[in-house]
Amino acid sequence: MGTATGTTADAERNGPPEGGGPGGPAGGAGRSAPPDPPERPAPSTPPGPSGAARTSGAADANSAPGPAEASGSSGDPGISEAPGPSPLRLLLSRVRPHQGVLLRAGLLSLAGSGAGLAMPLTAKYAVDAFAADRSPAGPLVALTALVLVGACLSAYGRYLMSRTGEGVVLRARDQLVSRIMRLKVPAVDRLTPGDLQSRVTSDTTLLRTVLSSGLVESFNSVLMLLGTIGFMAYMDLTLLGVTLVVIVGIGAVTSLLMPRIQRAQLRAQESVGAMGAALDRVLQAFRTVKASGAEERETAAVAAAARHAHDRGVTVAKWASVTDVTMMMSIQLAFLAVLGVGGARVASGSLEISALIAFLLYLFYLMGPIGGLVEGWTGLQSGLAAVRRIDEVESLPGEPAPPPAPVREAVRDPGPARPLGVAFQDVVFGYGDERAPAHQGVTFDVPAGGMVALVGPSGAGKSTVFSLLERFYDHDGGTISVADRNIRDWPLAELRGALAYVEQDAPVLAGTLRENLLFAAPEADEEALASAVARTRLDALVARLPEGLDTAVGHRGVTLSGGERQRIAIARALLRRPRLLLLDEVTSQLDAVNEQALRDVILELAEQTTVLVIAHRLSTVRHADRIVVLEEGRVRRAGTHEELLTEDDLYRELATTQLAADAR
Ligand SMILES: Nc1ncnc2c1ncn2[C@@H]1O[C@H](COP(=O)(O)OP(=O)(O)OP(=O)(O)O)[C@@H](O)[C@H]1O
Ligand SMILES: [Mg+2]
């Protein structure tokens, strides 16, 4: 049921691809979404005979994430606060598929608490029996049965509730993860990974809290409150009047304090988030921090953030204890008032002593639902914020959903791979910031088959050519064609399926060497794998590793050298059997012997497929059939090495300095 809701929403959002360029609607850079209003610990229950109603609240509070867990959510998310549908509606749409089971769970817990509610009345009958010298066995047996049945019903209700909560969390996580995988690259450029991560982990957890403590607890508390008041009215209307005056008092004081607590909690969460961000910064560049001798400075920065979080946490504690004390005092006050007024009425004979005892028991019982309401209110607030944060990610621009598996298979194996030609015609593209466009009318042709090299100074827009070919970004003007077909008309999966791209910084993922090699072509057989390993001269490395291909390479491949990572990335691309191979500075970190070997592999490949290579090393470039010289987002000139040497000053300059460098 719930999937249906999610799928519809996905379909709407996926819709037509949106522009990620300067005018694209993906906007909203840099603004922080509000962090979660954090969890507030359940208000402590004053000592009283009726713990039953509080137990469910306590269990929920335990299952909720603590401030630390929800912390990262307040980093710099970079997601715009565009007004979307109301969070309450979003929350209800997530809950709706489970409304049946939730209602059942709510009714069960209610029945459990209701059994507790009958206890003071039964106690009254027991006291009456004692007073009248009758046997109290009947009421006492009934009391015991009530306790047992009530406990079982409550427990089952809570189990159902938690199970449903887990189901909601699972569904939200599934949807969010598949959404994140399909986000457009420009949208992800603007996000902080830590923030995104916290949306998937802690924000989704808050959904469970909002379900149990927010919705169900509030629903139960309201009914329990009404029920208790009903029983109290049955006992004595005057005493009820006294009690209601006190309850209204509690309500007034608490509602005055609540906004303060909320604000304080919000700030506390923000500062915990800031601490997380400070730590993240250090861990992301751990070696640079050490090499720069910046440990103490960075430690001080993180410690300052931690102190800030501490100070704000203390403020929260201050306000929270004021509320707790207020609530406790109010109930004690009510107790004294009821005792005074009730005692006088007992003395005057207008009230039975057993009724006064039962009334006082109900008075303490009242704390459960009141606490539940306060808790439900705060739980609901944090849940609403979480839902909003989750929805923010889900409403970011996404790529079209992948075709069904059979189509994908067909795309993966296109039979004998025909090389693809590429044509850029007056392509204009900017990354959407204030800087000059990265491409300002780029025009060049790459014939099908053979090797074409892109050269030019740093920042000329070479890597951007590859990003546009992979359609990580949509170009703003001009035409890009692959195999004489406008790139916008290619189904995305088919286009990417035909390409292999080795990025400039040769990313290697955590996992084993084998997983990394097969990453782009999981179906490749052992023979193909062995051949790719041999061609990229990785066999010596594999032989050296303790578990060969099955050795883990560490987070981002930290256990490998730069050149090894580059060769793994190339082998990965070879295994994909692409029709167009995009190589970005793939030999920059290789020694001369390895570079020579890989150059031969690339030339060999160029006989079967189209190779578009970006290189600073002239030794790679000079063998290209054609060289395109880019400068400041434009093509300066194109031709062979010999032609460009005589015709283009920039190329000559690049060539002479680079060749000289290579010769060293
Ligand atoms: N994700 C991005 N967001 C914003 N600007 C970007 C992004 N990627 C690149 N740029 C900018 O676009 C311009 C072209 O970048 P590109 O990566 O294409 O250069 P390049 O020719 O590959 O340079 P290099 O030889 O140093 O790799 C640069 O000015 C760069 O700062
Ligand atoms: Mg580059």
From TrEMBL:
Membrane topology designation: Multi-pass membrane protein
Location of the region described as Disordered in the Swiss-Prot/TrEMBL record: 1-85
Sequence intervals crossing the membrane: 101-121, 141-161, 206-231, 237-258, 327-347, 353-374
InterPro entries, sorted: AAA+_ATPase (IPR003593), ABC1_TM_dom (IPR011527), ABC1_TM_sf (IPR036640), ABC_transporter-like_ATP-bd (IPR003439), ABC_transporter-like_CS (IPR017871), P-loop_NTPase (IPR027417), Type_1_exporter (IPR039421)
An MF annotation (GO) of this entry: ATP hydrolysis activity
PANTHER family assigned to the protein according to its UniProt record, in alphabetical order: ATP-BINDING CASSETTE SUB-FAMILY B MEMBER 10, MITOCHONDRIAL (PTHR43394:SF1), ATP-DEPENDENT PERMEASE MDL1, MITOCHONDRIAL (PTHR43394)
Entry similarity comment: Belongs to the ABC transporter superfamily. Siderophore-Fe(3+) uptake transporter (SIUT) (TC 3.A.1.21) family.
Name of protein: ABC transporter ATP-binding protein
